[in-house]
Design goal:
This protein is an all-alpha fold. The chain has a domain of 176 residues. The protein is built from eleven helices and no strands. Helix 2 packs antiparallel against helix 3, helix 5 runs antiparallel to helix 9 and helix 9 runs antiparallel to helix 11. Keywords: Membrane, Transmembrane, Transmembrane helix.
């Protein structure tokens, strides 16, 4: 318990605070001298702070980053996240004309499906069918999606209310996205790739469908609580959704924690 209270010593916290501080400094410099050329960098660091911090924390707990080549993870981050955003953005606009109406409850099913497309394409090659590799790829794809989505919200906010408010949007989304996009997709991958590793092939089972449905429902509940016209205190239920989302992901990935390395016993002369 004492170690949990010393979170400031962990690498994930240092990464998160450094990236958030750099984003804030870039925004402050923009406001001070009017140099808007650095705004994309400010938005990137702000949008990436939370997701990258969570990635560091998960890797330190599970070492899954070593299960897939770095270039493959980078490709999934850049292109998997981009393809997911392309598909999600298209079908969101097509199927959800009113972002503040009940149709917003469809968004979880749309965006989780979009994020699964590049992951399924990679899985069909048969090269990365282990649970550790699947979770690493899923988190990379979700990170790319979440960062680019957060940057789009920041650009909209800077046009409406200015750079400082855009920075606040990024800060709040940096706190939220690690417990939303990343863990929802991570949960699906933990269950699906766990089944596929055991079976040695891609197969759709009740557990895989159930994990996808759970992630989609949590995603839709989160968006509905934040956008629908509901009483103010009820909106705080999104914190319950975030906590439940992370708990399910953590539970699904407990077996990925590497066994401790035992020190050899000292030899007796």
């Amino acid at each position: 318990m004492r170690e949990h209270f010393r979170f400031y010593r962990h690498r994930w916290f240092k990464v998160w605070i450094a990236m958030a501080a750099l984003s804030a400094a870039l925004i402050a410099m923009t406001e001070a001298v009017g140099n808007r050329a650095v705004m994309p960098a400010a938005f990137f660091y702000g949008a990436a702070a939370g997701p990258v911090g969570l990635l560091v924390a998960i890797h330190d707990r599970t070492r899954i980053g070593a299960s897939v080549p770095g270039l493959t993870l980078m490709g999934m981050f850049l292109f998997g996240g981009g393809v997911a955003l392309l598909l999600g953005g298209y079908f969101d606009a097509l199927l959800i004309p009113d972002k503040h109406g009940p149709s917003i409850l469809q968004v979880g099913w749309i965006e989780e499906s979009a994020k699964c497309v590049p992951l399924l394409l990679v899985a069909l090659t048969g090269r990365y069918l282990t649970k550790a590799a699947g979770v690493a790829l899923g988190l990379s794809c979700a990170t790319g999606f979440a960062i680019m989505e957060s940057m789009s919200y920041a650009w909209k906010s800077v046009d409406d209310t200015g750079a400082v408010n855009a920075g606040m949007v990024l800060f709040m989304r940096g706190l939220a996205t690690p417990f939303s996009h990343l863990v929802w997709t991570g949960l699906i991958c933990a269950v699906a790739f766990g089944v596929w590793q055991a079976r040695g092939r891609i197969v759709i089972t009740f557990s895989v469908v159930g994990a996808f449905a759970m992630a989609a429902v949590l995603h839709s509940l989160n968006d509905g609580l934040l956008t629908l016209d509901i009483p103010g205190p009820a909106r705080l239920l999104f914190l319950v959704v975030a906590a439940e989302s992370y708990w399910l992901f953590h539970r699904a990935t407990r077996d990925l924690t590497p066994a401790p390395v035992l020190e050899p016993a000292p030899s007796r002369a």
